[in-house]
Queue: 3 jobs
Job 1
Amino acid sequence: MKEKLFKRILVCLLIIVLVVPIVYEIIIGSTLKTIKYKDLEDITVESASHYGFGFASIYVAPSSSDATKANKESIKVGSENIKGAASGETVSVYYLDYDKLSDDEKKVIFGDKTDKIAYMFYVNGELLTTLYGEIEINSLKTYLSSYSAEAMSPNLKEYKTFEDAAAFKKAIKRKNEVTMAVFGRDTCFYCNQFKTIYNQIALEEKLDIYYIDEGEFDADEFKKVKDSNLTIPKACTNTQQDESLKDYAYDTPLTLFIKNGKVIDCISGYIGKKDLTTKLETVGMLKTDADKKADETTKKEK
């Protein structure tokens, strides 16, 4: 009798071990992981934890909406085949319940907008951008793929390219205008990371930012580009000396800020959105907050 009871208990335990994970996957695994507002700081840290480049996205929507549950499941399924460029792992997408946010928390995420749905995209520990309103799943997959640096979608591409060396030389010689030119390769890991950042800034600030892919550019034309009498500042060389763009074997990505045919500043490698914004203000491509306030004051006085 005891032996039969023991066998039954053993069978029950075996069934539990086999069935519980399946049930858990059906109930929990088919939808997004829910987080609280206080968890955003941890998400920010997580997005910067993978080999110097990480990504995370947060879907904000009211749990009181009938559509939210279905959307969560669609987002979960739609994101499963998208791999982060750095980690090689499926991109992280989380759910934040709008109904459980305080008024102050809603203000931080939505500002003065009346929306109750938002998609937040974190890259390298920074909030890259927030999109408001519902997004169709295929469009969301495009955003996830592009922002995670897996592959920049042509539909989201805001940076520009040069057709030939003549177009490059014309741009860098514009009188009193700064040209930002990023030299890189599509096979370069950090080039693709950086592309995510400056592409977003080009979109938000309506800036002409140029990318020169030396792997795609015609070889003869690229040689002419390098032979433009430009000097790479020592801050962006391994020799700690100014070097000629024509002769120096620079690392990519290399960003040059050029005004009146002369390099006035540079960036070696990848930097984040905040740092790039500061650099653009320094070289005069963007106005500082102080400049914007001064402009507003001047307008009011007029």
Job 2
Amino acid sequence: MILKNAARAAAISTAILAGMVTAPGQASADTTGPVVSGIGRVQTDTGLELTAHIDAPAGVTSVTATITAQTASVPKSTVTDFHLISGTATSGTWQSSGSLGLDVYASYRVAITAQDSEGTVSLPGRGLLAYRPSPVFHDTAYEPTTLSFEHQDINVHGRVTEYDPAAGDIGTPWPTPAGLGVFVTWDGHTSPRYATAADGTFAFTVHPGAVQNTTLHVSFVDSTAYAEGPDSEPITSVDSPARITLDRTGSTGAPVGSTQVISGTAEGQQEDGTWVPVANAKLLVQADVGGAWVTTDATGRFSHTVPVTNDTTIWTVSEMRPFLTPTSVSYTVANPVAKVSLYANKPTVDAYSRLHISGYPTFPGDWLPSGRVYIQQSNDGHTGWTNIGSTTIGSGGFAASVLTVTNPHGYWRYYYPGAPGFTAAYSPVVHAFRYQTAISGGKPSHTRVTKRHTVTISGTLKQNGYGSWTPLPKATVQIFFRPSGSSTWHLITSARTSSTGYFAAHPTITRTGTWRVVYKAPDQVHVNAYGPMVKVTAI
């Protein structure tokens, strides 16, 4: 039979929508007649055939189907050739044989009635038949059905041909344009739609993700038809060995408040035993103080910066990627040391070459072991550092120190030698400036002098800044005398230095005692200078 190829409907229709009437078709209320239910269809090699489930206590003797176009009132075809395919005549499934007698692709109303051995005819069971060509699947395959680290994609391929409801599968390919065609669904996910080729074949790849046990369902859809193909075998998965290799496994003695970089490579093992990088893997780096997710790059490398806290911390790097055995490694920040910082306030030096210096520390916690801090001096601020004193740490910082220094224009800093759990520390270098002064000579010309005779006390006053020593001109030096047996110094006279720093004084000797020349700085830029103490005996 050659069918008229009516326009295919734009909407997708189901083959049969069984809307059964189950009221019996008997003549009176005290008799029981056949009941038709479960209207359906079967695609056979020769075309569509109808099915129906019929319950009839008296046994079915005949089945009749009338097929009417949806828009018509007169049946298009009547089918009476039904045979029992399962069950019994009292309760079984019946199927039509041969052609349905339709010559136009269209939607039809189907009504099926049954008559039993007592002559009772059932009320009709009703349904809707979409009588038009439809796609059918052939040679559908899913490969592989076991997912692993090496094989995380499934290849789906097969062929779609046309099924003619009047003639069966005629083998004609069913091609589709892009955006329509075959797709698969699983666990609430749907793949894109893939077109079939001119010969009806299709082939595409899906990435199911981290599935443990699922089934793929293949379907077909275009503007005129919908069909479902065979399901896959159960899709399972296996886990492969994994490992994380750290560039280093930890540190000891890192300063508190600093940071550490945890880095390494994540790898998975292939079936042949080869270890390969795991790209774009999510790794969890965590400890009691917190954690974060990091992602490996294309070479499996990762890097994450963590803080160094007051206590030993064990960081765990874990990988929980699908298809890989969970694995983890540890990075230990052991015995961290608290960072100590020292600061010095701007110092001053007075006329007596006394250094006045103070400062303060910072460190984690409330207590610093061995709370003694040393004061160091250097002539140039870079080399030759020596300890010149020490101080202790108080509640407000270092106890202020006053130290006599050999260089009034030197450089100073604080130094903490460290202690278990605490770093050593130096303060920034600080500087103060006064000219250093010195008296050359300054001794009496004689040490035994007749009373009421004079002696000459002469010498040179010098100064030194950042360079060499130079004369200190136009300065006043004082001549002091302390009588023997006394502790009191008396100012006897003074002298003025020349342009070369030279001075001379001529005191009269009246009694035995000690003489000394003193320069007392009259400004804020020099320090005092003292000549030698020399005893002169009056005779």
Job 3
Amino acid sequence: PEADMVPLLLLPLLWGGSLQQPPGYELRVQESVTVQEGLCVHVPCSFSYPGSPWSSSSELYTFWYRDWDNTDYAAPVASSNRNKTVKRETRGRFLLADPTANNCSLQIRDARRSDSGRYVFRVERGDSVKYNYKEKMLDLQVTALTEKPHIRVREPLESGRPTQLACSLPGACEGGRPLTFSWAGAAVDSLDPQNLRSSVLTFTPRPRDHGTSLTCQVKLQGSWVATQRTIRLNVSYAPLLTIRLSQGNCTALKTLSNHTSLPVLEGQSLLLVCEADSNPPATLSWSQEGRALNLPQPSAPGVLELPHVGAGDGGEFTCRAQHPLGSQHISFSLSVQSSPNSCRFKGSEAHRSPTMCSSSGNGMQTTSLTILEGEALRLRCEADSNPPAELSWFWGSPGLDATPLSPTAILELPRVGPAQEGEFTCQARHPLGSHSVSLSLSVVYPPQLLGPSCSWEDHGLHCSCSSRAQPAPSLRWRLGAGLMEGNHGNVSHAVTSSSEGPWTNSSLSLNEGLSEGLRLSCEARNVHGTQSASVLLLPGKAVPQAGAVPAALGGAGAMALLSLCLCLIFFCIVKARRRQAAGRPKVMNDEEPVMGTVTLGSQKNLQPDGPPDQASPAEKGPLLGEQQELYYANLTFEGLKPREPRDQEATSTHEYSVVK
């Protein structure tokens, strides 16, 4: 009987537990475990208990309880005994492993905040083994969901090739709370919405998808708890080439299309930038007509700079991009054009060498040309440009009320006169800009003499003489064998000369030395010729000859000579007309007889460009190809003796007439 009582005394001790772990009972488990809300956790656990002959044939059961629950009455949170009811809030979420291998591991699915707390493990086998392992308990902590989804790219993304991306939430497990997936991003916006709600995304990347964002969001079904992760897509794609350029002073870059022609003005600067849009970056190189170009900046292989484009820079330029996914190239033709930059003038009748001139930029260059009056001039303008410029001639400067002269490059001036003096402009119009070059034409001619004209004054004889020429002439007086020029004077005479523009004026005052037979002449000269006119002092009256305005001094002639003078006047008129028809010589030396006293009268007025500061000027001298005018004078001298008539030979030599 005493032996039978021993087991009865031991059982209450086992059931109630003890403060110290009995020999043979051991629990190996992680005492503290943390899991995020909605996720799963596996808690490894193993145990041992002492064997007993009374319990070896009984079924082994394991349980997990809340630490505050009474294991005799309360329901466990997990049980290996199918007949043991577990707590409703943990049913299907807290799962125990098979205890036959002494495995007490606990699988927790869809962790909830309310699951936080301490848990105790209990083992039962028959009536001999019933034990709570309170010496070592499990402390479970459930925190907020902070875990980010994981996006797995199964293979490198390549443009044009379909690929799959998988999204998963670490800590989630099968059988846990269902998860809702959604995808968002520029690369997948156009996809089927059903595809975007799957954890596995199938799509075909494009070059523009490279570098864009893709987001996978995971939401716990039945709650507002959600988490997401965003990645940037790395899409490989073949190069897409573009060439941008800037010309001259323009810094803005413009895009150049493939196989186009690029016209560039010679001398301009050109900057070419070849860019390849690819991933990974392509290797760039430049070539001209198939020949590789060595670039000055190896660090920027796509940049080609031509500071001064020359004629030899024309041809086909190619930028090539080498890439693992394929190579590409883009070409263009560089056409070097020159704006109008040269001209040529030629004087065909003057036998001059061609005058060369050139213009640059947008300005206008002017050259000068001097030509003798009456000569012919042929001007030819040449423009060196590509394509050829359109040439035309103007009188004056283009844009300033210029008068069109010729729509071609040739300008003919058959007979140049003073009226043609001025500026001739050749304009070259070109698509790349217009240029002008001007010729300043100066016309030169020999002297044209007006005078001399003489009048009697209180203190003597006063004569004046004017001449027009280009360049301005010089005037001088001859009195008998004496020569007087410049500005000077004495008791017997005074000479005063002045010039303005093409005109030169000179006056002579004689106070003494007047005698019968005195010859007085005015002479005008410049580098292109000489002209002179003379006055012969005779008694009586005379009519001046053509080419000068004669005046003569003489006494009162006999009335018997009147008829002879009239005949001589008629003879001289006829002879002068014949001389005028023969043309004006460059060097004129006419001696004109003058008689009597007088008043000078002109048949027409001076032109507007007549000699300045002339009180009573004579008519302008004969121009080239013009008729000479006849002037009439009557001079009377007091106190002089009449002169005897000369013979016919003298009359022919000096060409004068005596009026009685």
